[in-house]
Amino acid sequence: MAASRKKLVECGDGVRLLGFHAVPHDRRGSKVPRMAILLHGWHGSANSPDVVSLAQHLFLRGFEVIRLNLRDHGETEHLNRDLFHSCRLAEVVGAVRSLQNKHPRHELTFVGFSLGGNFALRLGAHARSEELDLARIVAVCPVIDPANALSRLDSGSLIYRRYFIGKWRRSLRRKSATWPRRYDFSEMLRMSSLTQMTDHFVRRYTDYPSLNHYLESYTIGGDTLRGLDVNTWLIAATDDPILPVEDVGRLPPLRQLRITRTRYGGHCGYCEGRPGPSWLERSIGRMLSGRSVAS
């Protein structure tokens, strides 16, 4: 998005995340300024096509938009010494708090894709205790059961497996080049299984005692969402090739959680093969504007 400007977000404890901030000239008649914070998936970035496309749609509808990079994503390995892992919820909470403090008059909404959707759901569950004032949350094709997702990636399409391994390897090389005295990933870079790489990563570079403990720590279950008190919409596709839609079906009914399962959509795709915003973008735009959306 040409209108976006880089924005370093201070998240507490010295952690900084890079975002891109776009401010519309026309707020489309909204009396309260509205800001949408968008978060990508694992080894995506603030410039991932699904994130940029939604950002453009919301921007044209009068929303300020922050496209946020997770730690070590979007070639930001230099910003923080320690490595990204999926349990670093505190810094995403810190980023939202920082933006809330800088924009106290804004109505804030949060949209996450894939792993970003997992962060979005956990963020909603902690919003009250962390004093975050979020109007709405949208989780698109979120990771619900990381163990199932990891198993499907390793046993499924070779294309997806090679894609994620390649992206992870490039990120690790950038990290070790930036922090050569701290990191040597030579052993991990020789591995050809995501499960093997993740297991090595967890034991070598995190405080979690095992791969299972790590994966369970960001699994979304009934207990995880017990504190959810933000109006939340979860969207999943039956034909998602990466995340089993059955995982969504195991979530308990919650007053603040609405779930839509579509027949088609792939993994955060929802492409319609025609010009203009997709069903996903139109629906999220209506939802964030406080209008009803079709299931």
Structure report:
- With 295 residues, this protein is α/β, with parallel strands linked by helices.
- The protein has a domain of 205 residues: Alpha/Beta hydrolase fold, catalytic domain (Rossmann fold, 3-Layer(aba) Sandwich).
- Helix content is 36%, strand content 17%.
- It is built from ten helices and eight strands.
- An eight-stranded mixed sheet has the order 1-2-4-3-5-6-7-8, with helices on both faces.
- Strand 1 and strand 2 form a beta hairpin.
- The radius of gyration is 18 Å and the shape is globular.
- The protein starts with a strand and ends in a 7-residue tail after the last helix.
Low-confidence stretches: none
CATH level 1 name of one domain: Alpha Beta
Total of DSSP H or I helical runs spanning 4+ residues: 10
Q: List the helices and strands in order.
A: EEEHEHEHEHHHHHEHEH
Instruction: Report how far apart the termini are.
Output: 29 Å
Instruction: Assess the beta-strand content as a share of residues.
Output: 15-25%
Strand arrangement within the widest β-sheet reads: 1-2-4-3-5-6-7-8
Give average pLDDT, whole number: 95
SS class: alpha/beta
Question: What is the annotated CATH architecture of one domain?
Answer: 3-Layer(aba) Sandwich
Radius of gyration computed on alpha carbons: 18 Å
The shape, in one word, is globular
Give the tally of β-strands.
8
| Sheet of most strands | 8 strands, mixed
Relevant CATH superfamily of one domain: Alpha/Beta hydrolase fold, catalytic domain
Helix content: 25-40%
**Per CATH, what is the topology of one domain?**
Rossmann fold
